[in-house]
Every structure is written in C-alpha cells, then in structure tokens.
Specification:
By secondary structure, the protein is of the alpha/beta class. The chain has one domain: Vaccinia Virus protein VP39 (Rossmann fold, 3-Layer(aba) Sandwich). It is built from six helices and seven strands, in the order H-H-H-E-H-E-H-E-E-H-E-E-E. Helix 2 runs antiparallel to helix 4, helix 2 runs antiparallel to helix 5 and helix 3 packs across helix 4. The longest helix has 18 residues.
Length: about 210
C-alpha cells in the first residue's frame, strides 16, 4: 500500500487481504448506518491514514507481554480491528454503546474470523462493575472520545499496573497532556502520520507502591 510505504510500514499479503475485507465491509455498512464521516468511495489519503495506517503504526509501540486490550467507543472498528489484525496474539475487546454499530463490529469479527475478539454493547462506565474487567487489560485504546481527567480516571481502572493507554490524537492540542491524573503518567508521544500531524499519546499506569 502506497500510504503504508510513506510511514515505513510493511504489510504482509495476508494482512493486506484482511484489511481490504474490513474496508469493504465498512463501505457496505456505512451506506446503511453512519459509521464514519470519512469519504469511503472514493477514499482520500486521509481516509486510509486514519482508518488503517495509524493503527498499524501504533502496533509498533505495543509493550512487551501485551496480550489483552480494550478499545473504547469502537464505532467504525478503527483503531481496534486493524490493530487486532496486525497483532494476532492480542485479545481485543471492543466497547460500543450504539447497538447497530456493535452489530457491525460483530459482523466484522465473524467475517474475518478474529477468534481473539469480543464486542460489548455498553457504555464503558457500565463495565466497571465487572470483576473480570477490573485491572484486567494490558492496553486501553481510545479515539473519537472526549478525554478529560475524569475520563482517564475511569479508563485506568481497566488497566493492570504497568499497563498502557493509547490515546489517538489529531493535530489539535498539546503533544504532552497536562490533565493526566495519577496513577496514570505520560510516557511518550509518537508521530503516527506526519502528513496529518496525527499522534499517539502513550500513558502508563504506575505500579502500586
């Protein structure tokens, strides 16, 4: 893929085929329900960058031993689906409150036979009462969700100590966030697609002393 080469991402033929299938499903379903405002047919460079390339770049920054992830507000399936495809050892739980979008995500998982994926039709706050999800994830990913200090405090409850939070950000806002509450701390900000000034802000959860 031309856009992948621009950011030095190598895509194996099998992964390229899976990403194409996901994209075709997204195009088909977007006609019926509003999954993304990005132009899909024909797509622009920004469409490929946002939906496919950014998650593939983010996969480079997965921590060692990262095997369980929760994606918040999964909607169109990005970044969760491409990330799960790029890291097949990753168990991905997608959280989406809107029923029709959750049905789409379930169909993508079924069609692509992503065995280590699940879809939760709920607001993420509702899942806090689940003992199996409390401090059960190595990674939390979030994009297209309003992130405030209170939101981060809620999300950190899903993370194991030393777990990571991947916050996908556009060009708007500082590279180093100032509203990060303990036990989270900022550890890095990585460029995703330089042409779009998109960034991945990485937060880590401190070990309990």
């Amino acid at each position: 893929m031309r856009r992948a080469r621009r950011v030095d991402v190598q895509i194996a033929p099998a992964l390229a085929g899976e990403l194409e299938q996901y994209y075709r499903l997204l195009m088909l379903w977007n006609v019926k329900i509003n999954l993304t405002a990005l132009p899909l047919s024909p797509p622009g460079d920004d469409t490929f960058d946002r939906l496919l390339i950014e998650p593939l770049v983010a996969a480079r920054h997965l921590g060692p031993g990262c095997v369980t992830a929760i994606d918040i507000g999964s909607g169109s399936g990005s970044p969760a689906i491409p990330l799960a495809l790029a890291a097949p050892g990753l168990s991905m739980r997608m959280v989406e409150s809107k029923t029709r979008k959750a049905v789409f995500l379930t169909e993508v998982v079924r069609h692509l036979r992503i065995t280590r994926a699940a879809v939760e039709t709920a607001r993420f706050e509702q899942l806090l009462s689940r003992p199996d999800l409390h401090e059960g994830a190595d990674l939390v990913t979030v994009r297209a969700v309003r992130v405030e200090a209170r939101t981060l405090m809620t999300l950190q409850a899903f993370l194991r100590p030393a777990g990571q939070l991947f916050w996908f950000r556009s060009a708007v806002g500082p590279s180093t966030p100032s509203n990060v509450p303990p036990p989270l701390r900022w550890t890095a900000t990585h460029t995703l697609v330089d042409a779009n000034s998109s960034r991945l802000v990485v937060l880590s959860k401190d070990l309990v002393a």
